[in-house]
TrEMBL record:
Residue segments, region Disordered: 234-254
PANTHER family with a match to the protein in the record: RIBOSOMAL RNA SMALL SUBUNIT METHYLTRANSFERASE I (PTHR46111)
InterPro entries: 4pyrrol_Mease, 4pyrrol_Methylase_sf, 4pyrrole_Mease_sub1, 4pyrrole_Mease_sub2, rRNA_ssu_MeTfrase_I, SAM_MeTrfase_RsmI_CS
Name of the molecule in the record: Ribosomal RNA small subunit methyltransferase I
Biological source species: Hymenobacter terrestris
UniProt-listed NCBIfam families: 16S rRNA (cytidine(1402)-2'-O)-methyltransferase (TIGR00096)
């Protein structure tokens, strides 16, 4: 695939709250493509209206992507240029997109991903836990496999980032407190970039009580949990070999 090969599919990040958080390039691409693939056409329609763009919209989401991909590939093969967007943030991160990208690449269709808004980065930086090494866990399993996943996180030394829904955040905080320890520091960011943006940092058990006491919890949530303290193995002293030799000599003498 050469640099002159035309791009057929663009992954275009959209604002996670504040409509100003969209790049000039994203606006240009949305204005140039033949079709916009949207997780929710009503949400994306409002964004396009705000940007004063008129483009055909096609529904592409978790429940129809397997049916849509073969049809889209046929249209892409004929030269149609498409932009894939999610309701908020970068498509493909805990949102549909992977399947279409994989199949496009397998057929030699050029795919470009624009940089832009995503909720995990500001939540990570606002936590103050350090961004040198981190792991993005997305949404925890709702039922099957949830406890297994939680146990897998026990030895994790990197900062952990989760997406969570408002009605499950208390349960998740309580379970993490039980598995990782009630004093493990964590940060809950809610309504990022919006008018009532909030970030609360405290031990897991304290956070669970905080949110459990609220009459209601609104907005998408990013949960950041501090990793397990790294325990360095004890270093052998430079004289250990000789200490062992001296012990052997003493035993032989007896």
């Amino acid at each position: 695939m050469s640099e002159t090969t035309p791009t057929l599919l663009y992954l275009v990040p959209t604002p996670i709250g504040n409509l100003e958080d969209i790049t000039l390039r994203a606006i240009r691409i949305l204005g140039e493509v033949d079709l916009v693939l949207a997780e929710d056409t009503r949400t994306s329609g409002r964004l396009l209206q705000h940007l004063e763009l008129k483009k055909p919209l096609l529904s592409y989401h978790l429940h129809n992507e397997h049916q849509q991909v073969p049809r889209l590939l046929e249209r892409l093969a004929k030269g149609e240029v498409m932009a894939l967007v999610s309701d908020a943030g970068t498509p493909g991160i805990s949102d549909p997109g992977f399947l279409l990208v994989r199949e496009c690449l397998a057929r030699g269709f050029k795919v470009e991903c624009l940089p832009g808004a995503t909720a995990l980065v500001p939540a990570l930086l606002k936590s103050g836990f350090g961004a040198e090494r981190f792991t993005f866990e997305g949404f925890l399993p709702v039922k099957k496999g949830r406890q297994t996943r939680l146990q897998e996180l026990v030895p994790e030394t990197r900062t952990m980032i989760f997406y969570e829904s408002p009605h499950r955040i208390v349960k998740t905080l309580e379970q993490l407190a039980e598995v990782l320890g009630p004093e493990r520091l964590a940060s809950v960011s809610r309504e990022l970039t919006k008018l009532f943006e909030e970030t609360v940092t405290a031990p897991l058990a304290e956070l669970a009580k905080n949110f459990a006491a609220r009459p209601s919890i609104k907005g998408e949530i990013v949960l950041v949990v501090q990793g397990r303290p790294y325990e360095r193995p004890a270093k052998a002293t430079r004289y250990k070999k000789y200490d062992n030799d001296d012990q052997t000599d003493d035993d032989d003498a007896e």
